[in-house]
Amino acid sequence: MRSTEVCVVGAGPAGSAAAIRLAQLGHRVLLVERGGPGRAPAAESLPPSALPGLEQLGVRAAVEAAGFLRPRGSLVEWDGAAREVDGGGAAGFQVERARLDELLREAAMAAGAGLRRPAAVRSIEHDAGAWRLRLADGETLEAQAVVDARGRRAGAALRPPTAALCAEWQGANACAGHGRVQALREAWVWAAPLPDGRCSVAVFADAARMAALGGPGRAAFYDEAVARAGLLDPVLRHARRGPLRVRDASARRHPTPADERGLLRVGEAACALDPLSSQGLACALRQGVQAAACLHTALVRPADAAWAWTFHRDQVLRASRRHEALAAGFYRAAAARFDEAFWVARAGPADDAAVPPPPPPRSWPALDARLCIAPLARWQLEPVLDGDWVRPSPALVHPGLDAPFAFWCGRPARDWLQPLDATPPLPALLERWRALCGEALAGSLWQHLWRQGLIVSAG
Ligand SMILES: Cc1cc2nc3c(=O)[nH]c(=O)nc-3n(C[C@H](O)[C@H](O)[C@H](O)COP(=O)(O)OP(=O)(O)OC[C@H]3O[C@@H](n4cnc5c(N)ncnc54)[C@H](O)[C@@H]3O)c2cc1C
Q1: Which fold has domain 2-69+90-156+250-338?
Q2: pLDDT, position 351
Q3: Please, what is the Cα angle at 416 between 325 and 323, to 5 degrees?
């Protein structure tokens, strides 16, 4: 039986990111990937928000040199008018998924991780203090800890299930590489061109309805939706469609992202985001990196293991809820426009305990008003990521915040909030903060904490 310290199952973005970081942190890692046909869609949008994660993994330069299209934003037609939605100034990527996954796998091996590919894991069981993974070829692997990164797998759908009908088109016009998104009466369409004339086009529709239609009915539904999507016309006018594949595109959340015996679920195995957010890849990379820090902590500082498991659970839940809130806003906007079952059924809250609603606007306090921390806020120990370690740190929690306030600009929350014990007026508070982080950041911290209701007028 082959044995390793950490076995990472699944070499998609989440699994490879975890393997890279664990290997960089000095752990013995084996990445196991079943291989097989490339996943649909062939192209996906990687937003600029993923750049820091790529940098941290040491793959940014390789991804930038891979020749992916670098659009500055996407073309979106959601409320009746087409507009360009930019990525906040920075360019993202229109990645070819097979190539991105290959770059990440290569980086994992360069960092020192082993790779078994093709090798499908059939079962993962905990027995006599170790994890045993049975492979399809009959071999068994033993590991002290496991990262389960097998992709969209488990957990109930958070809204009525959605299916993505995906096809590649040949001979498409890359049109500056813009991804295109358009809401239709009973579906939405999304297109991502590649520089070689291929273009991935997916139609997102109700999964139960698509299952009932059967193959020919689905193909007719897909073709009609694409024909109705005016935004795709300049891209697909002379292109030819390839075969259709159906994928689950429902937002899901696994009930147990962390098993305290040493198994963490990451990426879509932990929470599958609604593709409307276009953040699945960035989130998978981020979770892989965070999970590596959690396992590193649990393996090297077992006294902090419980904090590490809690941190991972909290991060998965918060990411899932934030993206659900974002997706719900898009569904509501389309429901107001079309009033169709597809949109209306998805426009409600997806969660029993959703993200706190945005606070009502508050007028700014008078300049001489004395300020203090809101009476509902309280200090408690929360797990925080400090470099490569998870450790407990005092943080302020408040019903208006979806995450505890533990750090800002690399300094603990106490450094920022302690001055409020003296109930200073705003100019004095800002002066203290400016000395720590400069004018602009002090201003944005003030606006954030005041808007969320964490700071109030004293008395
Ligand atoms: C139609 C559609 C369009 C999308 N578009 C975008 C987009 O534009 N931008 C974006 O950011 N996100 C997009 N997403 C989401 C994105 O695809 C996912 O967020 C991302 O792939 C998650 O990465 P992952 O590593 O968690 O899972 P995956 O990428 O699914 O990787 C899982 C890996 O595990 C392997 N595996 C599975 N089972 C086993 C096993 N038993 N043994 C060994 N290996 C196994 C698989 O082969 C695979 O390599 C889209 C999703 C859909 C459905």
Answers
A1: FAD/NAD(P)-binding domain (3.50.50)
A2: 64
A3: 10
